[in-house]
Batch of 3 targets.
Target 1
Amino acid sequence: MTSSGTATVTLPTDEQIMVVREFDAPRELVFRAWTEPDLVRRWWHANRGEIRSIEIDLRVGGRWRYVMVTPEGQEVAFHGIYREVVPGERLVATEVYEGMPDAEAVTTVTFTEDDGRTTVTLLVQHARKEHRDAHVASGMEDGLQDALDLLEQVAQSLDR
């Protein structure tokens, strides 16, 4: 397996986080790895805990929820509602970290393919700069980088 490397994380505005990552796998497989519960279970933990549950109702108005428990016993849970679902191309959903329930964000994920390689662009839109800054300060980038490396491995494993 090859790795495309790490994601680029930028802060385009005071309320936004943008993540761009290229994967050495076709778009269809990256999208499946991003949206199928049994596949998400294999990468979302970023080697930082044990997945307790992955729930995905992939339709407009459908809910999603991911729960992990860290080795220290802390539950880390996120949930949201899908606002837009374009299979293989685009997802728009709310995202709430349950430890900070008043800081709902809207996440837009796009999947584009060029010559069998997929670029995922993830834009997280917070309502307030303080929420964006808390998200960044949480250490999310390290976990995100590791999770996306695992995601690439999962997507590549589907191509066999």
Target 2
Amino acid sequence: MSPENDKVTRMIILGPKAQLSQSELLGKLHMLELPLTIKSTCYGAVIHGDDKIVQDAITKIRDLDPSNIFTKDRGFAPGDPRRCRAKRGAAREGFHQLEKEYELLEYVCDALKDPKKVSLEESKKISLDEFRKIVQECEK
């Protein structure tokens, strides 16, 4: 086994249109039978272990519903007393940021499921005469 400082922690976040529930996600993670610490959360799960094993688990889990399962680094292992809500007695730092990000996930899910080609037009400069005309119209 590798030392604790060689391990990583990732959050697995289920999007609002995910085809599996939080409890199904946990079941699938456990069925991978990988040497991971797995913690249930309100948004999905937290997994902790060797980087390669964590990445392998994420790849396999995302294959279940690629446009609705997201991951994010978490700087602290599950249960770390510096961030554990049970020990601190309040929402952990970053939770409110995660709430805001979650509000946008529906749009990200839709874009991943049905990508559209986007082309941006470069804005063109207007002439000084045209600018003066616009200013004069606004002053009326």
Target 3
Amino acid sequence: MEFNKLIPELSVSDINQSLEFYTKVLGFKIEYQREEEKFAFLSYNKSQLMIEESNGKWETGKLEYPFGRGVNFQIETNEIDHLVESLKKNRHPIKIMPEENWYRKGNELVGNKEFLVTDPDGYLLRFAQDLGRRAVK
């Protein structure tokens, strides 16, 4: 396994609840874990994420729900519809239902079909499916 150059590590309130959400609902794979430390290294396609139950070591302040205020993690996928169905089936609320968005990059627009969901601790996840590129009008 090759490690990405930037891998977020999220402090979570309950490692088992987070593992259930990330693996069973969203389809992340556990690459490895240290159960004694309540830590897991997860992957989804080429995205990588670490989660560890809050232990006071990494916090810079009091953790209060929703965790990760002001940040969202974009995760590339080709399975938007499948993810949405899994979230609905598991009765997990979706913050923003899938929508098509186009973002200017130089002289072209980059398109994504994307939706927003929060994990059990309130971290904001943005799943994005590539829609291609087109010229700016």
